[in-house]
Design a protein that fits this description.
This protein is of the alpha/beta class. It has 8 helices and 16 strands. The strands form 4 sheets. It has a 6-stranded mixed β-sheet with strand order 1-6-5-7-8-9, with helices on both faces. α1 packs across α5 and α2 runs parallel beside α3. The radius of gyration is 21 Å and the shape is globular. The relative contact order is 0.10.
Length: 290
């Protein structure tokens, strides 16, 4: 089941209960124990305050929230809409894939534990036609869940309970990732070549032996960072700062997962490392293509 662009709730909604937890304007989304049907409590001890315009102007950025907890999906959608996003909500995995084809989202907030078609399979199918940023939500602080989510193409993950404001901040950070330098009109050629590999940071295109290579946005951003300074050995933290932003907090080994995806798409075996080389004790650097 999916919804179109999010409609704002009427009245003064102070608290939304979700699976035994709650979220208010300054609190955390907290979902302890087993998942239950979402209920909404709009009771308040004082009359609704007059509406004040708090939403930012529309940014033209489309966000798809896929979460079967209806109240939680509404909370997340409201926060994103307030930031100027065009928000679409969906509570079913199969319908989410169809909706993603229709609306072509820039970012997808995707729950791992969807009924039926789960978040992992939704992400796998998304990656066959979309390079949208994907933030995976998981109810367990389980390293396996996180790594599996990243292995199928998610760009980031968050563990419940979490602050909706932190989610919005992470989405914003993704969308304003720093792009490679040297892209001005007077900077000369920007095509970067490493043997049979060519990288165009302006057009965000990659060719291998003359054939186009489809990369996700995160995979391209990592390749662009490495190819911008090919003689520099980047630590995982430096790559995170460059691609995810300095405010990102989490397991830095997510870099390894995305590097693995990148190598596979470039037919670059770790043993030969023609394009992406491992620098032991440091991190990664660009290879020469030889």
């Amino acid at each position: 089941m999916c919804e179109g662009s999010l409609k704002k709730p009427q009245g003064d909604v102070r608290r939304v209960t979700v699976g035994g937890g709650y979220c208010d304007d300054d609190g955390m989304v907290d979902i302890p124990g087993e998942r239950t049907d979402a209920t909404q409590d709009t009771t308040t001890s004082k009359p609704p305050a007059p509406e004040t315009p708090t939403a930012r102007p529309a940014s033209g950025v489309r966000a798809l929230v896929v979460e079967d907890e209806i109240a939680l999906a509404g909370v997340l959608g409201s926060y994103l809409e307030r930031e100027g996003f065009e928000v679409h909500l969906c509570h079913d995995g199969g319908a989410a894939v169809s909706l993603a084809r229709d609306v072509d989202p820039d970012v997808v907030v995707l729950d791992l534990g969807l009924p039926g078609l789960d978040g992992l399979e939704v992400c796998r199918q998304l990656r066959t036609f979309s390079d949208a940023y994907v933030v995976m939500l998981t109810a367990r602080d389980d390293e396996v869940d996180k790594l599996i989510g990243l292995s199928v193409g998610a760009d980031d993950y968050m563990t419940k309970p979490f602050s909706p404001r932190e989610l919005v901040a992470r989405v914003r950070a993704m969308l304003r990732r720093p792009r490679p330098l040297g892209t001005g009109e007077d900077d000369g050629p920007v095509l970067r070549s490493f043997g049979s590999l060519s990288v165009d940071p302006l057009g965000r295109d990659v060719w291998l032996a003359g054939e186009p290579v489809f990369l996700t946005r995160t995979e391209f951003d990592l390749l662009a960072a490495l190819s911008e300074r090919p003689k520099l050995a980047f630590s995982r933290r430096q790559l995170i700062d460059h691609v995810w932003g300095p405010a990102w907090v989490g397991d830095e080994h997510l870099v390894d997962v995305h590097i693995g995806h990148l190598r596979r798409k470039l037919n670059d075996e770790a043993s030969s490392s023609k394009f992406v080389r491992t620098v032991r004790g440091v991190g990664y650097r660009m290879g020469t293509g030889q």
